[in-house]
Automatic annotation (TrEMBL):
This is Xaa-Pro aminopeptidase. Gene3D superfamilies: Creatinase/methionine aminopeptidase superfamily (3.90.230.10), Creatinase/prolidase N-terminal domain (3.40.350.10). Residues 1-39 are annotated as: Disordered. Belongs to the peptidase M24B family. The lineage of its organism: Bacteria, Bacillati, Actinomycetota, Actinomycetes, Micrococcales. Residues 57-201 form the Aminopeptidase P N-terminal domain. Keywords: Aminopeptidase, Hydrolase, Manganese, Metal-binding, Protease. Its cofactor is Mn(2+). Residues 1-12 have a biased composition (Polar residues). It is an enzyme of class 3 (hydrolase). One of its GO terms (molecular function) is aminopeptidase activity. PROSITE patterns: PROLINE_PEPTIDASE (PS00491).
Length: 522
């Protein structure tokens, strides 16, 4: 296939990054450019330790996952990018996090290289998997010291192709060789579209050219097919679906990582409780909560799995309150929704709602106990064979009954539960459960009949997180209820004959939570 007009090569893109970086900072650069300096900085370095590592624990699990993907797409080339750096401001970027599908299929986590691409090349009996990434530059190159985006002098040591190949137990090649993959793209090639926009665009162009050349038997690079670039591509969606559904059931390695992430999250929650005196003394006490938990996440893992919700007082009625700039006042509740993401990218997702003073008021406890009852009712039905959406329905039975008993509904609980009513959902508009793993909302591109209407299987991990939220200005509830929000969220593993609450070690009942807070000296 002709590619004379393909100027979006890897080398061109890499040069563009370097030029853009230089352009942003040319007016303040002091890097010497003399030949003498280049010779001097490129010499006098000790030999590197080139000892290759043993394959990491997850390498064999990643190989098994790749085999399943290979079986789903015989004869087709598959391209799964890690994604690239994203600009935050001028010459600063957001911390890099590889796409979850790339991490799942390679075993590469927080040490992934930006711009890497996993390629499944079809063979007679399956696929050959190769990871393409930009290898470290020699210390005799200008990149080593003059490129703040990728130079080792600026960002630290980068791995060699041989090192990564041994570490991940997968073939590796330099990123410049990915151009040959693009040259070979045909209309059967699939790409994980959302992972890297630039890679997707290159694949789109290549597929369009291939189709045009097949139809016209000539180089149709100038034909007006570019209107299709970036459009939805249904076969690509099938790839996204398969790699998403592959994560619905967690293997042995993944389950162990989930336990470790939850254990780290437990430590973070306990450290927040211990800091309540400092938290309540600050005008932005919610920020202290966020910071204390983020410190634990960085100590035990890669980062937080999502923006922590540290919602005190009426902020707890805002489902995704992440501004976290309010005070933490004795007498109020704090709703802390947070999770540690490990270096493998597996994340916990836990919520606890605790009284700042160490004691729930009568109304606070009334609401808390209702939410706990809903959570326990949902957990009680979990076992293989149950439909996933039934977990939510079990929690809603309790939420409807309690809000009806309190006189908040215009109809009975039974009537409210009818599909055309759902009045109790005014006080809990979100769902009760979502799958959890590499993404906090994992497997999101799975088909509905595999997710909401899917049958529970041993190895699935998901949340149970009912809540009740009474907005400060909600005139349908008595004044003493207004401004109170409670959520209890646990991470659940489906077992062979039932379920295990992986986060049960974090205090859950009102009595346990009160003792927890008081035990920290409050």
């Amino acid at each position: 296939m002709a590619n004379s007009s393909d100027t979006s090569t890897t080398e061109t893109r890499a040069a563009a990054v370097t030029d853009e970086e230089a352009g942003r900072n040319a007016n303040r650069s002091t890097t010497p450019s003399s030949e003498g300096f280049k010779r001097f900085i490129g010499s006098g370095w000790a030999d590197r330790d080139e000892t290759l590592p043993s394959a990491r624990e997850q390498a064999s699990f990643a190989a098994a996952r790749r085999a399943k993907v290979s079986a789903a797409f015989p004869g087709q080339r598959l391209i799964v990018p890690a994604g690239d750096m994203k600009q935050r401001a001028n010459d600063t970027d957001y911390p890099f996090r590889a796409h979850s599908a790339f991490a799942h299929l390679t075993g590469w986590g927080s040490d992934s290289e930006p711009g890497a691409v996993l390629v499944f090349e079809p063979t007679a009996d399956g696929h050959d998997a190769t990871v393409y990434f930009r290898e470290r530059a020699g210390r005799d190159s200008e990149e080593f010291y003059a490129n703040p985006a990728i130079g080792e002098f600026w960002i630290g040591a980068r791995p060699s192709l041989a090192h990564v190949a041994a570490d991940l137990a997968v073939a590796t090649r330099g990123l410049d060789e990915f151009d040959h993959v693009v040259d070979a793209v045909d209309t059967a090639t699939l790409v994980l579209r959302e992972a890297d926009a630039s890679v997707t665009e290159r694949v789109d162009h290549a597929r369009i050219r291939f189709a045009a050349e097949q139809a016209l038997s000539t180089n149709a690079a100038d034909a007006p097919f570019s209107i299709e670039v970036g459009a939805s591509h249904e076969p690509d969606g099938e790839l996204a679906r398969v790699v998403s559904e592959l994560r619905l059931v967690k293997d042995e390695f993944e389950q162990a990582e989930m336990r470790a992430a939850i254990d780290a999250t437990r430590r973070g929650f306990t450290e927040v409780i211990a800091e309540l005196p400092r938290i309540t003394a600050e005008v932005r006490g919610e920020r202290v909560i966020e910071g204390v938990f983020a410190t634990r996440a960085r100590l035990d893992g890669n980062a937080v799995g999502y923006d922590s919700i540290a919602a005190a007082g009426p902020h707890a009625t805002i489902l995704h309150w992440t501004r976290n700039d309010g005070p933490v006042v004795p007498g109020d509740l704090v709703l802390l929704d947070a999770g540690v993401e490990l270096d493998s990218y597996y994340t916990a997702d836990i919520t606890r709602t605790f009284p700042v003073s160490g004691t729930y008021s009568a109304v606070q406890r009334q609401i808390y106990d209702a939410v706990l009852e809903a959570a326990d009712a949902a957990f009680a039905i979990v076992k293989p064979g149950v439909i996933f959406r039934e977990v939510h329905a079990a929690a809603m039975q309790v939420i409807a009954r309690k809000t009806a008993e309190w006189g908040f509904l215009p109809v009975s609980a039974e009537e409210s539960l009818e599909p055309d009513n759902q009045f109790h959902r005014r006080y809990m508009v979100h769902g009760t459960s979502h799958h959890l793993g590499l993404d906090v909302h994992d497997c999101a591109q799975a088909r509905r009949d595999m997710y909401m209407d899917g049958v529970l299987e041993a190895g699935m991990v998901f949340t149970i997180e009912p809540g009740l939220y009474f907005q400060p200005d909600d005139l349908t509830v008595p004044e003493e209820f207004r401004g109170i929000g409670v959520r209890i969220e646990d991470d659940i593993l489906v077992t062979a004959d039932g379920a295990e609450n992986l986060s049960a070690g974090i205090p859950r009942t009102a009595d346990e939570v009160e003792a927890w807070v008081r035990g920290a000296g409050h």
